[in-house]
Amino acid sequence: MSLKAIWNAIFNSKKRDFLVHKLENALMQKDSKECIKIGIAYRDGDEVEQSLQKAHECFLKAAEMGDSEGYICLALLQCHCNNLENFDIQVINKKALEYLEKAGNMGDSLGYILLGSIYENANGVEQDCLKALDFYQKAVALKEGDGLFRIGQMYEKAYIEPTQELLDEFEIDSSDSDKNISIATQYYLIAANSMQSADACLKIAKILYDDYKALEKDNEEKALEFHGDAIEYYQKAGEYGNPKGYTELGLIYAWGDSIIEYDFEKGIKYFQKAASMGDSQAYLELGILASVGEECSIYGFDRAITYFQKAIDMGNFEGYTKMAATYGEWAYKVDDRKQASAYFDKSATYWQKVGEMGEFIGYFNAGRLYESAGAMAGKDKIKGVKINEQKAFECFLKAANMGDTKSCLKVGVAYYDGNGVEKDYTKAFEYFHEVIKKENNEKEKAKIKKVFYTTADILADAHIFLGRMYASGFGVEEDHNKAYEHFLEGAQAEVGKHQKAFAYSGIALMYHLREDDEFKALPYYQKAASLGNAYSINYLKNR
Questions:
Q1: CATH 1.25.40.10 segments of the chain
Q2: Looking at the whole model, is its pTM more than 0.90?
Q3: In angstroms, rounded to a whole number, what is the distance separating the alpha carbons of residues 117 and 76?
Q4: Which residues form the signal peptide (predicted)?
């Protein structure tokens, strides 16, 4: 056994003995909270060997002392075990439900809230909105504002329909198409104003801020009123315990709007408040300011990376995207080639991490970095970085296999030109056709927008490449009619002049090869030449 293993064994043994001693004292003093703390240590393996059985014993002892939190912990422990071997999910869920109901019956509204959520969202049980409503109402009876908020959500989602009696109570017309939303809003207002529900305050604030945005140009007086109320409710949301309220205030103050002038420092204070309360989004926003806000007090690369890492550690994986973008941006800001190259590698690595998490944009952006050595968006190549066509191809291929149309085009071009992979016209043909096959797929069009390319750009390129392949017989039997059709498709698309020029010259060439008709070809040569196509310019000069 290694020295490290021996030390860990001794440490765990001492920690275990210490916890046993603490548990014995807690039982003697009937300290349920201490039992729960010890149970959590065993559950999470916090500096001691994990033992779900011992955690269960500690939580049960706390519950038997009359602490409802013990039952809550027992219920969550059962759910935590769902993915472990040799456990029956149905048995576990049934036991978890029993524990939660016991907690609720002891006066703990959280038990009822969790039960309501389970039945509302069908977590391991069949959805039963009436049962969910009943549990939420029990929470309300215990003065829990979150119960009212969740009832409001159920009306907003139309999971339940308002009775005529309820409509009359709130003076809402039964023929109103938005009656569910109107009922929900009433519940949110009561929960926010009478029961200090942080979530309800946040909801009302967002409604009011949206109303302000809708009216800021047409009704300044009303917009100003909505804006002031929204700020007030965001503040209340934070004060009542929802850090998102402070995060939203941070966004408003940091970046400003038509009423509030931007104030980085005030925004930072709100983000820091939210972050201290456990909001990972606040860490992302702090990271963004640290990365790009040269005027603000926290500006700096190291701080930005630290903030993004904290967001990642809290489970907010958007931090990987921010990490990737920040390393890529700062690679241009350093003069040292070695440092710039290291930042570039980090950027590409983090983009690939985004891809590994199921977002094709990660692999696509990594591919773009490798194919251009960072020379994107009008920027020069990053100092000390070389183009890596093989890695670019590998990344584009992964993104294409995840369904990204633009990456399909990139893979097709790589096979066509032999960039990063052995030239293969047959495979190139397949990928270009795959792009066109996705043309009418609205879902794919939505994905394309995410990578800032229009559908027309991608499809035009695919058609032009297929036109070239049919014209020359590369990877497919030579067919000038099909080549003409593809060039025509490319020319008719709303694309840039370079693509149009190539398509026009292709059409002209097909009139020559297909019909030997210079009269028909000439206008297309002229169009292509006017757009700067060198082949067409030379043809017209020498004819």
A1: 196-316, 454-543
A2: no
A3: 13
A4: none
